[in-house]
Design a protein that fits this description.
- The complex is a heterotrimer.
- Chain A is an alpha+beta fold.
- In chain A, 35% of the residues lie in helices and 14% in strands.
- Chain A folds into 2 domains: 101 residues, Beta-grasp domain (Ubiquitin-like (UB roll), Roll), CATH 3.10.20; 131 residues, Fumarate Reductase Iron-sulfur Protein, Chain B, domain 2 (Orthogonal Bundle), CATH 1.10.1060.10.
- In chain A, helix 3 packs parallel to helix 7, helix 4 runs antiparallel to helix 7 and helix 7 packs antiparallel against helix 8.
- Chain C has one domain: Fumarate reductase/succinate dehydrogenase, transmembrane subunit (3 helical TM bundles of succinate and fumarate reductases), CATH 1.20.1300.
- The chains are: A alpha+beta, B mainly alpha, C mainly alpha.
Chain lengths: 241, 114, 122
């Protein structure tokens, strides 16, 4: 097969939804989905809007919905997903669409902040270094979850995000978990209160879509399970009002 | 109590009751598989269960655990399908919990005391 | 922009073991929860003496009822095994690589239980 039949989502929030447009794209060896999108924008329709940056699987900017699943398009080989020569490319689900394949990430990062996903320092420059055992249980828990680059694929893949508008989502909760396990952080009680409740970790039903799709092979499912345990313990101890 | 604290404690209660139910259901399934041979008559059931303090305690614990576990699960499902947690839902599942407790304990009494 | 419409997922995003395990767990939970009041009502007939209880139990001898019983046993068993997997994940250990195996084992064990029950019925 020398040509791909590519359906691409076009449209923005101002229009009545959007629509798919079909283009024929030459098929090449070792072609990625990002190559396909780039070809359409450069050779066929320069008005196509899309995001990318590193194009080598490090930044997460090129995440889109490819044949129904959220993926990094730069790391998705056409061969792997379009055996029959058909490709469907759409913006990430659960994010407001700015235009075409570009989504608004602000809500995603707002939820990161709501989950108290930022480090609260406790030491000063006059204190000596904190001693963290690299092989210790808490540090290993942090290491397993710390590599998140905020690409949004887990958020797009999570059905609870779709069902529950307030749900903080797997990425925000995963980041909160890394901080809950950091003994240098001073915001534990506030953070556990922030991630408890029906907008927080307790809304997770272990669908595991986040873990299934994470390109960094992280497991937000496990992080959220940890938060459930930590929040329950904090509630029992009266640390969550 | 804040909604967050309540949610955390409900989660814990549901998992704790789940652990109890795991043991009860294993026994219950085993009993069903072993006891039901070509049908089951009242005499067969009651001969085993009547007058036994052990069965009363077992089924009593079973009923209490399920009266905690099932309504909390339904509460989440109802909230997700009807646009969010509300007081009315909490009242409804609370009523369901009481129904299960009352009907269940009556059944335990019926089958083990009579 | 925050309130703007977003695109949903479809079945292609859900077609993996963990999601199916969730769907089965939720469905079985709902059916079992709704069945319980009926179950307690039937058992409560033992209060009326053996004859009343027997009368009701004889009604349950119908093939459709027997088939439903097998179905209920399957749902109970699968909710149990699935639930054990969740308790393991939430309280003991979670390994992504183990999940497909655990889900398969949970499903298989439940089917075995239901088969044992069904075979005993005849």
């Amino acid at each position: 097969m020398t040509t791909l039949s590519v359906r691409v989502w076009r449209g923005g929030p101002g229009e009545n939804g959007g629509r798919f447009e079909t283009h024929a794209v030459p098929r090449l060896p070792a072609q990625t989905v990002l190559d396909v999108v780039t070809h359409i924008q450069r050779r066929i329709d320069p008005t196509l809007a899309y995001r990318f940056a590193c194009r080598v699987g490090m930044c997460g900017s090129c995440a889109m919905t490819v044949n129904g699943r959220a993926r990094w398009t730069c790391r998705t080989h056409v061969q792997a997903v379009a055996g029959d020569g058909a490709l469907e490319i759409a913006p990430l689900a659960h994010f407001p669409v700015i235009r075409d394949l570009v989504t608004d990430m602000r809500g995603f990062f707002d939820k990161w902040a709501q989950a108290k996903g930022e480090f609260v320092p406790t030491a000063t420059r006059s204190d000596s270094f904190a001693r963290i055992e690299p092989a210790g249980k808490t540090r290993r828990a942090v290491d397993a979850a710390i590599e998140c680059i905020g690409c949004g694929i887990c958020h797009a893949s999570c059905d609870v995000v779709g069902w529950n508008a307030g749900y903080l989502g797997p990425a925000a909760l995963n980041r909160a978990w890394t901080l809950v396990n950091d003994p240098r952080d001073g915001g534990r009680a506030t953070r556990l209160a922030a991630v408890a409740g029906d907008a927080g970790c307790h809304a997770c039903h272990t669908h595991q879509s986040c873990t299934e799709r994470c390109p960094k092979r992280l497991a937000p499912t496990a992080s959220i399970a940890g938060l459930k345990r930590a929040a329950a313990l904090a509630a029992l101890k009266g640390q969550i009002a | 109590m804040s909604a967050r604290r309540r949610q955390a404690l409900l989660w814990l209660a549901q998992r704790a009751s789940a652990a109890v139910l795991a043991a009860c259901v294993v026994v219950h399934l085993a009993t069903m598989i072993v006891a039901v041979r070509g049908g089951l008559s009242a005499a067969e059931i009651l001969a085993r269960t009547r007058g036994s303090l052990a069965w009363t305690a077992f089924y009593g614990a079973f009923v209490v655990a399920v009266a905690i576990h099932a309504p909390i699960g339904l509460r989440t499902i109802l909230a997700e399908s009807t646009g969010g947690h509300r007081r009315a839902l909490d009242i409804a599942v609370g009523a369901f919990a009481l129904l299960l407790l009352a009907a269940g304990l009556r059944a335990v009494f019926a089958v083990t005391v009579g | 922009m925050h309130g703007a419409a977003t695109r949903p997922n479809d079945w292609r995003a859900r077609d993996h073991a963990g999601w199916w395990a969730f769907a089965v767990h939720r469905f079985s939970g709902i059916v079992l929860a709704l069945f319980l009041p009926l179950h307690f009502w039937v058992l409560g007939h033992a209060l009326g003496g053996d004859a009343a209880f027997d009368g009701l139990l004889r009604w349950t001898e119908q093939p459709l009822v027997k088939a439903s019983e097998v179905g209920l046993v399957l749902l109970l068993a699968v909710h149990l095994t699935g639930g054990l997997r969740l308790l393991l994940a939430e309280f003991v250990i979670w390994r992504a690589a183990w999940q497909p195996l655990l889900i398969a084992a949970a499903g298989g064990t439940a089917i075995l239980c239901a088969l044992l029950f069904a075979l005993n019925l005849v």
